[in-house]
UniProtKB/TrEMBL annotation:
This is Uncharacterized protein. Keywords: Membrane, Transmembrane, Transmembrane helix. The chain crosses the membrane at residues 16-37, 57-73, 80-100, 106-128. The lineage of its organism: Bacteria, Bacillati, Actinomycetota, Actinomycetes, Geodermatophilales.
Length: 131
């Protein structure tokens, strides 16, 4: 069994990239919290609004993280691709949620995709730290 090696300067992602991915991951986590505060209630319009605006901020953070990945960690192709996938999945998630009131069937995809996003948001920093 091999022991994990500590991160070196060559394997550590750029601090700006790490910060943006961390903030994006926090946004994904908070989205789940805010959704839980209004799902199953009769009038959760305040939390729906918070959830919507939080989604907008999270998408922007993911876009910035993707740009940072392309610029700062472009030598780590898997990290760049995973960051771009996170951004694209968040865009799809945003629009599914935005149009959820018009088509309730969107929630059938919106909620499971949110779970996938949570997993990706946790996995991306781990992938970025690997050498």
């Amino acid at each position: 069994m091999t022991t994990p090696q500590p991160a070196t300067a060559a394997t550590r992602p750029h601090p700006a990239f790490s910060a943006l991915v961390g903030l994006t991951s926090l946004g994904v986590l908070l989205q789940g919290l805010w959704a839980g505060l209004f799902m199953g209630t009769d009038d959760g319009s305040t939390w729906v609004s918070v959830h919507q605006h939080g989604g907008e901020v999270t998408v922007v953070l993911a876009l910035l993280a993707t740009v940072a990945a392309v610029v700062l960690v472009r030598h780590r192709r898997a990290v760049v691709i995973a960051t771009a996938v996170l951004f694209l999945a968040l865009v799809v998630e945003y629009f599914l949620g935005y149009f959820a009131e018009d088509a309730r069937g969107n929630l059938v995809v919106h909620v499971p995709l949110a779970m996938l996003l949570m997993g990706l948001a946790v996995y991306l920093p781990v992938l970025a730290r690997r050498g």
